[in-house]
Write a structure and sequence with these properties.
The complex is a heterotrimer of chains A (419), B (483) and C (115). Chain A is of the alpha/beta class and 419 residues long. Chain A is built from nine helices and 30 strands. With 115 residues, chain C is an alpha+beta fold. Chain C is elongated, with a radius of gyration of 17 Å. Classes of the chains: A alpha/beta (419), B alpha+beta (483), C alpha+beta (115). The interface between B and C is medium-sized, with 10 and 14 residues.
Chain lengths: 419, 483, 115
């Protein structure tokens, strides 16, 4: 019987396991489906990680490496190449998994941290018309080929979606000798970090077409042509605006989806907006003893925030195992104007402070984040110079403010008039 | 000289080979593509129709009902995923209700067992997610859902293990009469056979044209589909049709045998028989019509679109006949819907043509009518452990969405008709079939193929010739570190 | 006055750099932003991250980076230099792969262990 089983050995799982160890748990197991720890960071060889957590700029593998090293100094057990097939909540919880080394195992544990991460949206989820030749890759799949396996996936490339992975891949493909013809974004703003627009596209003169999308793909065998059209305010292609690119490759960076098949199967209540489990401020799901953190809860843009969130989950899992009492009373959070979702979705009343993460639904210039309670009382406000859907926002609500709140909290974003 | 040459290894060619393999005949199957069943067989509604649609007296009527029965037996014997879930044809108005009665009468005339006409309340009770506008339905309990690709592969594999030769990447470039038969030229050599079956699907008229001008034309007609996530599987529990019209059986909504939901098709005549594209208009049409049957379909849960080309022809029935001018040359052509449902019976019909001419033929005593096909995730826990103990590769999950193990992939790569492409593995093992569409497992499958078949990963194709995935290595130059 | 978006960290501050006034930077929220604004206009630099061949390791490529920013215009030349490198596992993180890359005084180092 374990005290804690962590499902997933990427940045979320590593941070949660290390933190639970630090807080005193001694029977911890990480189940990782890949042949090494580190998760997706291993293929994210670019820099920009760690500025918050380590106060220095690291590459993905370096960031993962530090946590792996930290983990190796603990007694946390790890099973690699192990696929979890089923999670059955209960006392204890049961984790069914399979591996070449141990066969089909049923493991029992007091607490579980879900840290399975996310997967990429595919061509199918956005139903791009056209033929179905080879040469269409999700950006992450191309990244793995390029950075870990050492293969090029194309020579002349169009990228759909301006999420960070797409932007990073535009630069990587260019540096490795491919010609990136265009980066195409459906929305009127980029989904990636501004710095990536600058150093991945502008540095290499790669045009970014906002409010455009791919409307046709030609090629019986390998991609030969991609048609790009402008879209109207309802995101419908405008006839007559077609541009045809002769290319052999289309990379898709059209969003990430939390990988929650295990969670759903286990009957853990989900949030339709995040596609992740509903969680409290300590990252506990609605099922006692089962916690979730990282991209499996909501898609992050900075791994540093994943780490912070996962440390909260790890600490809370340890507290659960050590028998900490939880206040049953909680404040539900709802998203007000301009806010797409919040994590957590509810806050227990007896906590010292609660971190609230969310994304805005559109671009905001000079603005403020406003937190009100159910009675309409202003609980807190936070000024912001700039907010965009591509950049996760985070606010901290201390106990004194939470105690003041009546009934529940609404988080909204408001533009502030200049002058 | 071969006794029989079968041109094409789609489901019809495979079914023909499967029947011929029972007799002491020297048989060659010539497939143009680099793998079997890569044409219409791989892209269709995956339905074994009950048989109430075709006009009584047609070949389609006879062979559909017979083929449906045979499909059940064959799938069970050869471990092909198949389930007789039944089908409903929906009526939305009085005219539709009249059509249902016509279909019911036709079905009875065709010998379709168990047909029932359901009223509105019966429909609602059994399929609660259907539109409230539905006024009644025709229920056909024998309709089934199948993995059409596995169905063709299974029959082809049994044929091959019983001595039939299969040559892939062997498109026919010439057919000439020779003494006692025909010479069929392909890039893989010239094959001479006493009898030839033309089962080349959408290309049947062109292939027939290599020998003589046929008196029919194939009029290729494309249908587009959505394949939805397993989350949508339980929208309906039967195959849901609308009333047929001049364009065919209309847009259907059906669970698939792999636990997804299939929605489509439209019907669009096309010139280019290789153009398997989707169009915005086609997909709009499918969405619009499908939601008429099942209003709650969530198209955001789509995981893949595809299209297939029906081998419609200028005739109104299947074209199963011997050339009057070239005895021994048979067409198995114009196999439009219900072609998949009829395939097994078409194969039997083909074999009977040989038996009529070769009256001395007796079935082989040593014909082995079975195959093994391990699907890890369907095994019990004890079976899984036993398998992993025997071969640890069954403990390594490669495709996470569909729980496909390395053991299954390796087994496929050493099967009677081994794949050598990523999609070849996908169709045999389901790796890459799921919601991530091979994003995670594609490179790993490619690696396993390269390792098992001794290829450079850059040589491993996605699918047919020309579908290269990788364009070369990074850091191709190599050299010494200058530290 | 030149408008720039700071790329020092993911925050993406909108900087104004006054070229006529000693490259004074406003709009930054940290000293590194001020430094970036000035450098970007005078002699822009970037950290290069890429891979080199590695033999006998868990993967076929080893991720590397320049230990400090190098002039932006040297990116493709630097890639050429990396093309000529093959390492043999094991490699440890921080190990120098190329010293003094293209005379910049900057080393290329491994960014992970490779067993």
């Amino acid at each position: 019987m374990y005290e804690l089983i962590v499902i997933g050995g990427g940045p979320a799982g590593l941070a949660a396991a290390c933190e639970a160890w630090d807080k005193g748990l001694r029977r911890i197991l990480i189940l990782e489906r890949d042949k090494e720890l580190g998760g997706i960071l291993n293929q994210c060889i670019h820099n920009g990680f760690g500025l918050h957590h380590f106060k220095e700029e690291l590459t993905g593998p370096e960031y993962a490496g530090r946590f792996i090293q930290q983990l190796q100094a603990t007694g946390v057990e790890v099973q690699l190449d192990t696929m979890v097939l089923q999670l059955i909540p209960g006392t204890p919880h049961q984790v069914h998994c399979v591996s070449a080394q141990h066969g089909y195992q049923i493991l029992e544990t007091q607490a579980v941290v879900l840290a399975m991460g996310c997967r990429e949206r595919t061509r199918g989820t956005i139903a791009i018309p056209g033929e179905r030749p080879a040469g269409i890759f999700t950006a992450g799949a191309a990244q793995r080929y390029l950075n870990m396996e050492g293969y090029m996936v194309g020579r002349r490339v169009v990228i759909l979606g301006s999420g960070d992975i797409g932007l990073i891949m535009a630069r990587r493909m260019t540096l490795e000798g491919a010609k990136v013809l265009a980066c195409v974004e459906l929305m009127p703003y980029s989904g990636g970090l501004t710095r990536n627009i600058v150093q991945c596209l502008e540095d290499y003169n790669i045009p970014l077409y906002l409010s455009h999308t791919v409307t046709d793909i030609r090629g019986h065998n390998r991609v030969e042509q991609v048609t790009v059209s402008q879209v109207d305010e309802n995101r419908r292609p405008i006839p007559g605006t077609e541009m045809v690119f002769d290319c052999d490759t289309l990379l898709l960076s059209v969003g990430l989806i939390p990988e929650n098949e295990l969670t759903r199967q286990a009957g853990i209540p989900m949030d339709r907006r995040t596609n992740g489990a509903l969680v409290y401020e300590n990252m506990e799901t609605q099922v006692p003893g089962i916690f979730a953190c990282g991209n499996v809860v909501h898609v992050h843009d900075l791994v540093d925030y994943v780490t912070a969130e996962s440390q909260r989950a790890g600490a809370a899992a340890a507290a659960f195992v050590q028998g900490a009492e939880q206040d049953a009373a909680s404040l539900p959070l709802t998203n007000g104007d301009g806010v797409g979702y919040t994590v957590p979705q509810s806050i227990r009343r007896n906590v010292d402070k609660a971190q609230v993460m969310f994304r805005v639904g559109r671009v905001f210039h000079k603005s403020r984040i406003v937190v009100r309670d159910q009675a309409g009382n202003l609980i807190a406000q936070f000024p912001r110079e700039h907010m965009a859907p591509g950049e996760m926002e985070q606010i901290s609500l201390p106990k004194v403010l939470l105690e003041r709140a009546v009934g529940g909290l609404t988080v909204s974003a408001e533009e502030v008039a200049e002058g | 000289m071969y006794d029989v040459i079968v041109l094409g290894c789609g489901v019809v060619g495979a079914a023909t080979a499967y029947q011929l393999a029972r007799y002491p005949l020297k048989v060659a199957v010539l497939e143009a593509q680099n793998d079997v069943a890569n044409g219409t067989t791989k892209a269709n509604s995956a339905i074994i129709h009950a048989g109430y649609d075709p006009e009584p007296g047609t070949l389609m009527a006879k062979l559909n009902v017979e083929g449906n029965r045979m499909a059940g037996e064959i799938c069970q014997k050869l471990q092909v995923p198949f389930a007789r879930v039944g089908s409903l044809v929906l009526a939305f108005d009085e005219a539709d209700l009249a059509t249902l009665r016509t279909l019911y009468d036709r079905g009875v005339a065709n010998g379709v067992p168990g047909l029932e006409l359901w009223d509105q309340s019966q429909v609602r009770q059994r399929e609660p997610n259907l539109s409230q506008e539905v006024k009644g339905a025709l229920y056909a309990p024998t309709a089934g859902i199948v993995d059409p690709w596995q169905y063709a592969l299974a029959m082809a594999e049994v044929a091959v293990t019983n001595g039939v030769e299969l040559h892939r990447s062997a498109p026919v470039t010439a057919i000439t009469p020779v003494e006692g038969g025909y010479a069929v030229t392909t890039p893989k050599g010239v094959f001479e056979g006493r009898y030839v079956f033309n089962a080349t699907g959408v290309f049947a008229d062109q292939v027939h044209g290599l020998l003589e001008t046929p008196d029919y034309r194939i009029t290729p007609n494309r249908g587009e589909y959505y394949l939805m996530d397993k989350s949508q599987h339980e929208q309906v529990s039967r195959v849901i049709f609308q009333c047929p019209n001049e364009n065919g059986k209309g847009v259907l909504v059906s669970p698939t045998i792999h636990g997804n939901l299939i929605v489509g098709p439209n019907a669009q005549p096309v010139e280019d028989r290789h153009d398997l594209g989707n169009t915005a208009q086609g997909l709009d049409f499918v969405r619009e019509h499908a939601t008429r049957s099942v209003p709650g379909l969530n198209f955001r849960e789509n995981i893949r679109n595809f299209s297939g080309i029906r081998a419609n022809s200028t005739r109104h029935d299947f074209i199963l006949e011997e050339s009057p001018n070239h005895p021994g040359f048979f067409d198995l052509a114009g196999i439009k819907s219900p072609g998949l449902a009829s395939a097994a019976a078409i194969g039997k019909w083909a074999c009977e043509q040989i038996l009529e001419k070769e009256t001395q033929l007796e079935p082989k005593q040593d014909f082995v009518d079975q195959r093994t096909h391990v699907v890890f995730h369907t095994l019990s826990r004890e079976e899984k452990n036993a398998l992993i103990a025997q071969d640890p590769r069954y403990g390594r999950v490669i495709c996470r969405c569909e729980t496909v193990t390395e053991g299954e992939i390796v087994a496929a790569l050493h099967s009677p008709i081994p794949p050598h492409t990523i999609n070849g593995v996908k169709r045999r093992c389901n790796a890459g079939m799921g919601r991530c569409q091979g994003g995670f497992c594609g490179p790993r499958v490619q690696d396993i193929i390269a390792r098992e078949l001794g290829l450079n990963p850059c040589e491993v194709l996605m699918d047919q010739e020309g579908t290269y995935v990788l364009t070369g290595e990074t850091k191709a130059q190599g050299g010494k570190a200058h530290v | 006055m030149k408008n720039l978006i700071c790329i020092v960290c993911p925050k993406g501050c909108h900087l104004q750099v006054d070229e006529e006034n000693g490259y004074a930077v406003t709009g930054n929220s940290c000293p590194r932003g001020a430094e970036y604004g000035k450098t970007e206009l005078l002699h822009p630099t970037r950290v290069l991250t890429s891979t080199v061949r590695v033999e006998g390791g868990l993967h076929r490529r080893l991720p590397v980076k320049t230990a400090a920013p190098i002039p932006k215009e040297l990116m493709f030349e630097a890639m050429e230099a990396l093309n000529g490198v093959t390492l043999t596992a094991p490699v440890t993180v921080g190990q120098v792969v190329i010293s003094n890359l293209l005379g910049t005084g900057v080393d290329v180092v491994a960014t992970r262990d490779m067993k």
